[in-house]
Amino acid sequence: MGDDTTSNQRATVLRDAEIAILAANSKLNEREIRELYDEFLTADMSGTGRINKEQFCRYYKQLVGSEHGLDDIAKNVFTVFDVDHDGTIDFSEFVLANAIEMKNDPDSVLEFSFHMIDTSGDEHVNFDEIVAFVEKGLKLGITNEDKTIIDAKQITRDIFAMFGINKTQKLNKQQFVSGYEL
């Protein structure tokens, strides 16, 4: 029992120090970080202090409140959150990614979207990545009747035309973010 108390005290001290660091880096306040910690503990069903892709997908579906068509989106969000690409998300990655997602300014939203679209991780988005992203978004927001009317490839061609590029070219993050100001 003595070891459990000592270990819990160490975790609290570590967590308090981590909260201070995360608050400084994320611009979130202590209350917001503690709320995210509670969410993180709920998602960390194994109690390891890390969330794997399967746990995250379950958490994400519960957060969004739907099972329908979210597997690919949840996996993309996981990839964005897994900053060190070790196949798991620790609490720091969880907080920093949520801090980005919680921002409401257009540039932050576009930067987050860029990272969601860039499934290859090469810091560029190509035609196929944008088509895939648009298709996933359409699955969430359209009815079966609308599927015959809305064409993800045409939407992507229109986006590329807006940027003045063809489908063999790629966009970097700066182009992507600044291009939406056109």
Mean of residue pLDDT values:
78
Distance between the termini: 63 Å
Strand fraction: 5-15%
C-alpha Rg, in Å? 19 Å
The overall strand count is: 4
**Total separate domains:** 2
Number of contiguous helices? 10
Q: Give helix and strand order, one letter per element, not per position.
A: HHEHHEHHEHHHEH
Lateral strand order in the biggest sheet: 1-2
What is the CATH C-level name of the largest domain?
Mainly Alpha
Uncertain segments are 1-14
Shape: globular
What is the CATH topology classification name of the largest domain? Recoverin, domain 1
Please characterize this protein's 3D structure.
- This is EF-hand domain-containing protein.
- Belongs to the recoverin family.
- InterPro entries: EF-hand-dom_pair, EF_Hand_1_Ca_BS, EF_hand_dom, Recoverin.
- This protein has helices at residues 2-26, 30-43, 53-64, 71-81, 91-102, 106-117, 127-141, 144-147, 152-163, 173-179; strands spanning 50-52, 88-90, 124-125, 171-172.
- Strands 1-2 form a two-stranded antiparallel sheet.
- The model is unreliable at 1-14 (pLDDT under 50).
- It has 182 residues and is mainly α.
- The protein folds into two domains: 2-102, Recoverin, domain 1, CATH 1.10.238.10; 106-179, Recoverin, domain 1 (Orthogonal Bundle), CATH 1.10.238.
- It is built from ten helices and four strands, in the order H-H-E-H-H-E-H-H-E-H-H-H-E-H.
- The protein is globular.
